[in-house]
């Protein structure tokens, strides 16, 4: 879908494995002309710390007039049963869950018609592995939130989530067979589809 004017896209988590590839694909002028891409981390200026509501407020007060928001950031903690105390669960609740929820709600309030928000969930919501309870819980909550808030979002504003699955580059770093995985570049295409498409309330799986 080509746009008649330059559209501004904010990518939160722009220096991560997936975020880097999302920025790269959205910046390909011959593929998606008309995009101005702004990569954001907690270290950029302005920066955004998903765990800090004041940081989010400062960011929203500073950055105005954007059309799309993509979030590829958010932490959650792996650990077996004995490691999952309240503090371990709190990491994912504050960062990947409420961090994404808060920034999505703030963006939906200011996006123009045709604007979109794309969040990140994960395959562990549906196919957990040992030690993934805290992560799986957060991923599932993100997907439920996206499906539900799409029903209440302002007219003409869309929200979706991408479920990346296992990333080949991550599997290689962990000493796993990367064969069943998906490259970060291919996963990034799903985020581009979410920005350019017409879907809302969907979880797009790798």
Characterize this entry briefly:
The chain is an alpha/beta fold and 206 residues long.
Characterization of this structure:
The structure is a single chain. The protein has a 6-stranded parallel beta sheet with strand order 2-1-3-4-5-6, with helices on both faces. 39% of the residues lie in helices and 15% in strands. The chain has one domain (7-205): Rossmann fold (3-Layer(aba) Sandwich). It has helices at residues 17-26, 53-62, 86-110, 133-149, 168-173, 184-196, and strands at residues 7-12, 35-40, 68-71, 116-120, 158-163, 203-205. It is of the alpha/beta class and 206 residues long.
Derived structural class? alpha/beta
Low-confidence sequence ranges: none
Strand content: 5-15%
Stated plainly, the CATH topology is called Rossmann fold
Q: What assembly state would you assign to the polypeptide chains in this entry?
A: single chain
Per CATH, the architecture is 3-Layer(aba) Sandwich
Task: Tell me the layout of helices and strands.
Elements (H helix, E strand, L loop, with lengths): L6 E6 L4 H10 L8 E6 L12 H10 L5 E4 L14 H25 L5 E5 L12 H17 L8 E6 L4 H6 L10 H13 L6 E3 L1
Parallel strand pairs: 1-2, 1-3, 3-4, 4-5, 5-6
Helix pairs in contact: 1-6, 3-4
Keyword list:
alpha/beta, single chain, 6 helices, 6 strands, 39% helix, Rossmann fold
């Amino acid at each position: 879908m080509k746009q008649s004017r330059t559209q501004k896209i904010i990518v939160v988590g722009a220096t991560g494995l997936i975020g880097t590839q999302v920025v790269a694909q959205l910046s390909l002028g011959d593929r998606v002309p008309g995009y101005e891409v702004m990569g954001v981390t907690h270290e950029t200026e302005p920066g955004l710390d998903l765990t800090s509501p004041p940081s989010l407020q400062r960011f929203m007060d500073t950055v105005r007039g954007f059309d799309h928001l993509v979030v590829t950031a958010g932490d959650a903690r792996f650990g077996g049963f004995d490691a999952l105390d309240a503090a371990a669960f709190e990491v994912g609740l504050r960062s990947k869950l409420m961090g994404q929820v808060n920034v999505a709600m703030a963006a939906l309030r200011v996006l123009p018609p045709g604007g979109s928000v794309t969040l990140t969930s994960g395959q562990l919501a549906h196919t957990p592995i040992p030690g993934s309870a805290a992560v799986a819980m957060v991923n599932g909550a993100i997907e439920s939130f996206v499906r539900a808030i799409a029903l209440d979002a302002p007219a003409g504003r869309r929200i979706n989530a991408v479920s990346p699955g296992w990333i080949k580059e991550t599997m290689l770093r962990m000493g796993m067979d990367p064969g069943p995985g998906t490259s970060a570049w291919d996963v990034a295409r799903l985020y581009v589809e979410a920005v350019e498409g017409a879907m809302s309330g969907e979880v797009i799986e790798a």
